[in-house]
Amino acid sequence: MQLTHQQTLPVTQAQAWEALNDTSLLQQAIPGCESLTPSGDNQFEVLITAAIGPVKARFKGKLQLENLQPPTSYTLRFEGQGGAAGHGKGNAEIRLEATGPRETVLHYTAHATVGGKIAQIGSRLVDMAAQKMATDFFEAFNARLQERYAVVAAPVPAAAPAPQGLLARLLAWIKGLFGG
Question: What is the CATH T-level fold of the domain 2-177, as seen in this structure?
Fold first, then answer.
């Protein structure tokens, strides 16, 4: 299985790098993650409950960060055992690209192989589950980034009193569209 995608993050490249290396933030963002514990230099033990098609299991695994090029890229190697549900292993290439003062694009390509009951489900369901986990991760990760690095919004100018009546509100809206 291969999964390639990119995600725009609302933070600087340095902030994105910091967040990608923050185990508590990652644990909150990884779907089904029960624990993410350092076990050595750039090594972690992880416990995740995941559903892949009709198979739901707790996976105990190891993560290893390699080829670290702060704050630009690294390789993530992973392997996990889910008991009778099966096992998986693979790697992901992660690359950060600053595209604005507070915007970074995270590019990733993940390769994985699975075995056991998970492999019997079929690659289509496994791919769909992986895509859903990635989508759920980035939604949660972006929410955590916004909480951590929130920018105070500029004050909104006081609005003029709203015109009364539907026709008056509609005309005011149209005037606003055309700068009138």
Answer: Alpha-D-Glucose-1,6-Bisphosphate; Chain A, domain 4 (3.30.530)
